[in-house]
Amino acid sequence: MDEALRTRELGLEKAAAPVxxxxxxxxxxxxxxxxxxxDLVVQPGEMFALVGPDGAGKTTTxxxxxxxxxxxxxxxxxxxxxxxxxxxxIKGKIGYLSQRFSLYGDLTIAENIEFFAEIHRVRDYxxxxxxxxxxxxxxxxxxxxxxxxxxxxxQKLALACTLIHTPRVxxxxxxxxxxxxxxxxxxWKILSNLLKTGITIFMTTPYLDEAERCSxxxxxxxxxxxxxxxxxxxxxxxxGTVVEIVCxxxxxxxxxxxxxxxxxxxxLFGDRLNLVVDDPARDMxxxxxxxxxxxxxxxxxxxxxxxxxxxxxxxxxSAETEVSP
Length: 325
What we know:
Rossmann fold, Alpha-Beta Plaits, 2 domains, six-stranded mixed sheet, four-stranded antiparallel sheet, 12 helices, 36% helix, 26% strand
């Protein structure tokens, strides 16, 4: 995509220096390479999502950027500071909400925020605390103990604690995993409002529907970055047309069609199949014939635009094919 078009699409002005810059970043744990040669740049004001399954290298990447882990090879800079050599300078300017963010169950919401303000040496924090309580909609519950909070309220409190020292960059590691759909939606509204303050957000998520809301997304698999661009541009990587079909015996239909030469891919999504074909007019008759032979009736069929999930599956399979002997 043309750089000027990308900048306009993101709604960003070109910055003198990126907030995050990664070059050839790798991390090994013994014989296991968790992160493999990542190259990535994130500009001020972006919400960037690193998307991939468990074990893809998302958490390792974010922990390196926060100065918690040192890279095995390559380099990374956050706000101009080297992640390997200047990690202490980075930590005071960022907020990090980890998967296992620890709140204190015997402290109230207000007391938890106060505790984290003291950790970050924030003086005169009371005004900031009140702002965050209102911002996260926790003000009516300020005296409720941490042990009495729902999963969604705990995440909002964790976010408030992470923001108490007014960081310039916010790192979120799968912030909505295990949170109910209503709380997820509420959390995203808060993040959208937070972007208006000029903060840069770098997050990891296994949810591709969440990644659709971000300025840009990076698809990571087995430690390798497969693509990084706007959601719209990433979808252009999809080869073929996606045809969605609904039938009564969806799993048997998947088994019947998965090796059919007329299909590039067959993807199972709940009660429906997504078939990726080169030419629906040419290829779908073979699909229909195979299903008829198996005695499976098609209830509905339509061509749909590719989702990020379609693209991720397609790009991942292509990458695995390239490295196969």
